[in-house]
């Protein structure tokens, strides 16, 4: 029996078309909640007074524009990224044994997936692989989806992305991947993470690696992660955050706000939040055992490596070929490195479980 690979795109979903935003009916205990999380932060980390995350969210038209920008950015840049860095579109995990070569960086990206799974307590013993299902929210070209399905011999894996190119390319790579068990079904869809097409309680593992920073509505994002997770299932979120404000601070500094806003424009990001904001959102949804960590030190070599490859003749030619959005993204890479070095930007992990019914 050959493994099944599917690539789907809902009609009208390309680049945030009208159906991409259409609301779907929700069912179950995690679909009708109306918690109003009182955030301390708004755009670029600004402290507010008794203002929910929802109040700091972009308007509907702004959200649509942002999502179109995200889709186009990844449509244009993914080919170059894969050409240089391979199928994993995220930071690497670096310990004292990591090799700072292209192959070493690629291995560090695989290591990131394995280390996060280990940190979150995901193992063969914690899953029933022959029945287990995983969703990869913000899947890129499917690297994490394939790796997790193969690692645990899961029955089903689905990756969703706003980029039609990424979904199509993910399907192409998957069809040639001999490591995926023949009994497994793996598919990729052009879908909105804030309006996922799945039934309630669909997945044993809900995985999101470096896509949360793109979400213009963090509360709705967390609600969707919780909704599609099975009771007893696990959610893993790895995302860029701004630092947690210290006691007595009312805001990030003016310098930090300018830094983040420059990055926002290049990478199509909305407001930033802290990991503590995510903790409170998860707790408001009734999720249990919320645990976080800061792996900023473990990803430190990554942006230096990306900058070096962008400055090579191969990288420069690729940037020229990929278009203005990709070039603008490359131009602010030094700001990402600066953000991490200064402590303004954090590479945060969060995991929690959905309670049994």
SSE arrangement:
Blueprint: E1 4-9, E2 38-39, E3 51-52, H1 60-85, H2 102-120, E4 133-137, H3 143-152, E5 156-161, H4 164-175, E6 185-190, E7 203-209, H5 218-228, E8 229-242, H6 254-267, H7 275-284, E9 288-294, H8 301-310, H9 313-322, H10 324-331, H11 333-342, E10 345-353
Parallel strand pairs: 1-6, 4-5, 4-7, 5-6, 7-8
Antiparallel strand pairs: 2-3, 8-10, 9-10
Helix pairs in contact: 1-9, 6-11, 8-11
Note the main attributes of this structure.
357 residues; alpha/beta; Rossmann fold; 8-stranded mixed sheet; two-stranded antiparallel ribbon; 10 strands; 39% helix; SAM-dependent_MTases_sf; PiNMT-like; Gamma-tocopherol methyltransferase; methyltransferase; S-adenosyl-L-methionine
Write structural notes for this entry.
- The longest helix is centred in the N-terminal third of the chain and has 26 residues, at 60-85.
- The chain has 357 residues and is α/β, with parallel strands linked by helices.
- It is globular and about 50 Å long.
- Helices cover 39% and strands 18% of the residues.
- The model is unreliable at 11-29 and 31-52 (pLDDT under 50).
- It has an eight-stranded mixed sheet with strand order 1-6-5-4-7-8-10-9, with helices on both faces.
- The chain has a single domain (4-8, 37-353), classed as Rossmann fold (3-Layer(aba) Sandwich).
- Belongs to the class I-like SAM-binding methyltransferase superfamily. gTMT family.
- Residues 1-46 are annotated as: Disordered.
- Residues 201-209 are annotated as: SAM motif II.
């Amino acid at each position: 029996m050959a493994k099944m690979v599917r690539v789907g795109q809902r009609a009208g979903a390309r680049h945030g078309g009208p159906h991409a935003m259409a609301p779907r009916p929700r069912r179950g205990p995690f679909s009708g909640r109306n918690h109003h999380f009182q955030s301390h932060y708004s755009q670029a980390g600004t402290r507010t007074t008794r203002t929910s995350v929802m109040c700091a969210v972009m308007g509907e038209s702004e959200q649509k524009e942002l999502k179109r920008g995200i889709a186009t950015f990844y449509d244009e840049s993914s080919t170059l990224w894969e050409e240089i860095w391979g199928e994993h579109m995220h930071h690497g995990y670096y310990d004292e044994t990591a090799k700072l070569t292209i192959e070493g960086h690629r291995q560090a990206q695989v290591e990131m997936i394995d280390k996060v799974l280990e940190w979150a307590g995901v193992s063969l013993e914690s899953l029933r692989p022959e029945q287990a299902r995983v969703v990869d929210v913000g899947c890129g070209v499917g690297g994490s989806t394939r790796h997790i399905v193969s690692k645990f011999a899961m029955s089903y894996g689905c990756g969703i992305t706003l980029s039609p190119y990424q979904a199509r390319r993910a399907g192409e790579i998957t069809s040639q991947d001999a490591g995926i068990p023949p009994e497994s079904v793996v598919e990729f869809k052009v879908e909105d993470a804030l309006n996922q097409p799945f039934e309630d309680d669909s997945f044993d593992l809900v995985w999101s690696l470096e896509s949360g920073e793109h979400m213009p509505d963090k509360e709705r994002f967390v609600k969707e992660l919780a909704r599609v997770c099975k009771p007893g299932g696990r959610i893993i979120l790895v995302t860029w955050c701004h630092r947690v404000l210290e006691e007595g601070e009312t805001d990030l500094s003016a310098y930090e706000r300018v830094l983040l806003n420059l990055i926002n424009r290049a990478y199509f990001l909305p407001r930033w939040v802290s990991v503590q904001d995510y903790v409170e959102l998860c707790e408001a949804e009734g999720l249990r055992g919320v645990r976080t960590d800061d792996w900023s030190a473990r990803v430190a070599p990554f942006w230096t490596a990306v900058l070096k490859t962008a400055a090579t003749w191969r990288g420069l030619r690729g940037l020229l070929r990929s278009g203005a959005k990709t070039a603008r993204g490359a131009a602010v890479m030094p700001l990402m490195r600066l953000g991490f070095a200064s402590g303004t930007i954090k590479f945060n992990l969060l995991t929690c479980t959905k309670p049994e019914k």
